[in-house]
Specification:
The chain is of the alpha/beta class. Among the domains are: 45 residues; 184 residues, Rossmann fold (3-Layer(aba) Sandwich). Helices cover 43% and strands 17% of the residues. The chain is built from 13 helices and 11 strands. It has an 8-stranded mixed beta sheet, sandwiched between helices. It has a 3-stranded antiparallel beta sheet with strand order 1-3-2, with helices on one face. Helix 7 links the parallel strand 5 and strand 6. Helix 6 runs parallel beside helix 7. The relative contact order is 0.16.
């Protein structure tokens, strides 16, 4: 989706600007006076069909040819999965009867992993975006709020990231575009009060980066989860060490994490860390964020789309880069 704010002397003139640029299919997200009170601002969005699928397809490589199970093994080696997990997946792939490599890998992934998207009707529980520092939790919070706003669900936004420089300002800037009030909660008590005040609305909570190896950090995060009576969803960046990602996910699972949103897919070639994290902590793949632009939203993930992400483009060499170099 495209999200843009238009300013004019009157609301009618701003609406005309929306129609000229975005067309009749534009969705009006919010209308409000300019900060100086002398004009009007209209925030509009345009749903672009298949934008998210196209974004995923753009990251995925062309279909592989040759023996499906052999290609699956090549793919797993390329993505750097831990040995035991790679072996399990290869054994599962050998049992599949599909002749197409994508379908073979998709069936294999479906047999080993679970998929539970956040998209759809609100569950009634607040969603807390949790994870290590720098994984993109604030952007994911904004993307979820934007999707909810476009569905006319009147989302609520809360941040507990009150100490990081610029943390509140970053999310508040986006909240203003959507016409949503950003609430802050510096403690579990304040968070409980804030969530009660917006009961019945889809609520998205941005949390501060948590050190997974700090018991104190995890205890503080657990207190926030309990105070909000919400679901913590792990935000995991692609392209990190697979074993590190697996251990990190296990640590976050201890505070109730059961689903994972993957980020930075545009900046990573090897996605083994995501599979390792999901497997080690028994997490379901929820959705993925292809890039840091809020307007591009989130993409749902399923076994087929994940298989397409994992399969690299056709290469003249059938040996994964660096794997052959390490063996020499």
């Amino acid at each position: 989706m495209r999200l843009k704010t238009y300013s004019a002397a009157t609301t009618a003139e701003a609406m005309e600007l929306v129609r000229r640029e975005l067309g009749e299919d534009a969705i009006i997200v919010s209308t409000h006076p300019d900060a100086d009170g002398q004009g009007a601002r209209v925030t509009a969005a345009l749903e672009e069909p298949d934008t998210e699928d196209t974004a995923l397809t753009g990251l995925a490589g062309d279909d592989q040819t040759g023996s499906p199970d052999a290609d699956v093994g090549w793919t797993l080696a390329f993505h750097g999965l831990p040995g035991p997990l790679a072996q399990r997946l290869e054994r599962a792939a050998a049992l599949m009867t599909d002749e197409d490599t994508v379908l073979t890998l998709a069936s294999t992934l479906d047999a080993v992993f679970s998929f539970a998207p956040l998209a759809g009707p609100a569950s009634g529980r607040p969603v807390l975006l949790v994870g290590p520092p720098g994984t993109g939790k604030t952007i994911i919070t904004a993307k979820l709020a934007a999707r909810s706003a476009l569905a006319d669900e009147q989302p609520a936004l809360i941040t507990t990231d009150t100490r990081r420089a610029g943390g509140i300002e970053q999310l508040d800037a986006f909240a203003q575009i959507l016409g949503i009030e950003l609430m802050t909660a510096a403690s579990p008590v304040e968070l409980a009060k804030a969530t009660r005040s917006v009961a019945g609305r889809p609520t998205f909570i941005d949390t501060a980066g948590t050190n997974p190896y700090s018991d104190a950090d995890l205890e503080a995060l657990g207190a926030l989860v309990r105070a909000a009576d919400g679901e913590p969803v792990l935000v995991m960046a692609a392209g990190v060490d697979a074993l590190e990602a697996a251990e990190t996910a296990v640590r976050f699972a201890a505070v109730g994490v059961r689903r994972m949103i993957a980020t930075r897919l545009d900046a990573a070639r090897r996605l083994g860390s995501l599979l390792a994290a999901a497997d080690a902590a028994q997490l379901s793949f929820a959705e993925v964020s292809v890039d840091p632009h809020v307007g591009h939203g989130l993409s749902p993930i399923n076994p087929v789309s994940l298989a397409r992400l994992l399969l690299p483009g056709t290469s003249t060499s059938r040996t994964p880069p660096h794997v052959s170099e390490a063996a020499q």
